[in-house]
Amino acid sequence: MSDHGSKKFQELLKTWQNKSEHQDLSWVGSFDDYLDLVKENPRITRNAFQRMYDMIMTKGTEEYVDVKKRMIHYNFFDDADNNGKDAVFGLDIPLMKLVNVLRSAALGYGTEKRVILLHGPVGS
Q1: Are residues 108 and 51 located together in one domain of the fold?
Q2: Residue 122 has pLDDT above 90, yes or no
């Protein structure tokens, strides 16, 4: 890469960096400060499974019956925040199974020690 190209690349990286956003997302303090935060808001200590399950459930669900089987549609996968750009259609049964695994792990039913491999084409 030429010296000129290198400088352009460095300038591009600088425009992507947002120092104030980084500072907003970073926290500095002592362990005692952290414990005080946990006392105020115990949800800080949630693990990844709990956070993912909460994220999905926050958007709500809709129940329906399909061929005498009770189905749950998770609104999270409709991607309403992006007008459905990355929505997942027609996979309610596999999504129910995935959310059930996340729920079990979030509640500490044993799957939290397992690795969940999400396999399939990109975007599925």
Answers
A1: yes
A2: no
